[in-house]
Amino acid sequence: MPFIAVGEENSGHIDLHYEDHGSGTPVVLIHGYPLDGRSWEKQEAALLEAGHRVIAYDRRGFGRSSQPSIGYDYDTFTADLNALLTALDLRDVALVGFSMGTGEVTRYLATYGSERVSKAALLAPIAPFLLHTDDNPGIGQDVFDGFVAAAKGDRPAFMTGFLSNFYNYDVYAGSLVSKERFQASWNTATSASAIAAVACIPAWLTDFRADLPKIDVPVLVVQGDQDRILPPIHTGDRLPGLIDDLQHNVVEGGPHGIIWTHADQVNVALLDFLK
């Protein structure tokens, strides 16, 4: 299994696990919370069939990457992504983020620019800014404080509730989401670092509003209109006008986890965008 070193904590290296398959124009896939790079299986298959090189990695704290106690903020996550792109010397890359992974895409383009990047896709985006403040119509701090308390108090139970809303399981159980798929996601979520599971929640409140105007590549946004985790009213619906070159696709009936439940629609939009 390939790894790259992105830092150190005390006596140990912090390593990112990644998979690198296929050939052609490279696509880098950045997963969402609380899953890992394997959550992209339906997109990876479609991208490989279309002739792309596909690189998917596990964020620090998740999957087969190291599980340090430090670095769970978007500046560090983005530095990790930059280390991967640099180590593999990737050029003409399409960056594709899902959910929390859209934060890395946004912050990367604002911080490191587009020298290596040709296009970007934000699937179920987290930008521009989730928190309610005097100048932002977002979600109250108390909601996120509740998430932190729940994740600290009983992480497996928290993940059950989170994933239920991730997939709109009350609506799609047995049709678009099997009990086996739900269980596999829960297994992945609970095998992640307990520290990361809590520490990532404050990172969701990163303000990306200053990053968005710096994006100078074409951007695809795809989001379900029934997204309970990152409601469109606070996220994707606000992005037109904040990014210069934006294509905005709405998946009717789509929950947060559209890369699984509505994979065919997502893949068609993504492959058409990458042509």
Automatic annotation (TrEMBL):
<dbReference type="InterPro" id="IPR050471">
    <property type="entry name" value="AB_hydrolase"/>
</dbReference>
<dbReference type="InterPro" id="IPR029058">
    <property type="entry name" value="AB_hydrolase_fold"/>
</dbReference>
<feature type="domain" description="AB hydrolase-1">
    <location>
        <begin position="26"/>
        <end position="263"/>
    </location>
</feature>
<protein>
    <submittedName>
        <fullName>Alpha/beta hydrolase</fullName>
    </submittedName>
</protein>
<keyword id="KW-0378">Hydrolase</keyword>
<dbReference type="Pfam" id="PF00561">
    <property type="entry name" value="Abhydrolase_1"/>
</dbReference>
<keyword id="KW-0575">Peroxidase</keyword>
<keyword id="KW-0560">Oxidoreductase</keyword>
<dbReference type="GO" id="GO:0016787">
    <property type="term" value="F:hydrolase activity"/>
</dbReference>
<dbReference type="InterPro" id="IPR000073">
    <property type="entry name" value="AB_hydrolase_1"/>
</dbReference>
<dbReference type="InterPro" id="IPR000639">
    <property type="entry name" value="Epox_hydrolase-like"/>
</dbReference>
